[in-house]
Amino acid sequence: MNLQEDIHRIQKIMGLVTADKLSDDNFINLQEETIKKGFKEDIIKVLDRNGIETTSKLVDGYDNLIKLLGDYQIQNSLKIKTIKDCLKRIGGSSLYDFDEEPIPYREMNTEYQEIVYLGINNVVVDRWGGHENESHLGEFPVRYEDLTEKTIDDILRIVLYLIETS
After folding, report:
1. Could you tell me the pTM of the whole model?
2. Do both 70 and 92 map to the same domain?
3. Residue 101: what are its φ and ψ, rounded to 5°?
4. How far apart are CA 99 and CA 71, in angstroms?
5. Do both 56 and 92 map to the same domain?
6. Which residue range(s) make up the domain with 12?
7. Tell me, what's the pLDDT at 25?
8. Number of domains in the chain
9. 142-154 residue pLDDT tens
10. Residue 111 CB coordination number (10 Å)
11. For residue 133, what is the DSSP state?
12. CA distances (Å), 141 to each of 67, 70, 83, 92, 152, in order?
């Protein structure tokens, strides 16, 4: 199948989902039905050929992509590549500039750390401490490859949303 056929098939199936505004239970039933018909394999092929950004657009967002893939795990390396590619186009920036809250990174007895900046190759983590974590203790960079899968997913959702809305 070529890309246009893949797009047509995905839009046809997703048109049912968006037009009917199905509940989560009905969406799960539709997901199971389409997976049985090989739709999941088609999505994976589109994902492998065209990447996360294009595939998520075809299925009306990253969250829908994850639901449709079910137990299939997108590799972190592909997620990180997508983040970096998107940030190369829109530029790195503070999460505040994107109207997003900082992402928790680590919390210890005497210190709280949160991601506040998304750069092309790494994030910047602010360190807070003192009474009720009110004192800024500095910052340090962390490579995307060193982040947890959940944190990578959170960043990917933010970046894809920014691309979709810009």
Report:
1. 0.76
2. no
3. -80, 155
4. 31
5. no
6. 3-74
7. 62
8. 2
9. 999 999 999 999 9
10. 14
11. G
12. 32, 33, 16, 13, 15
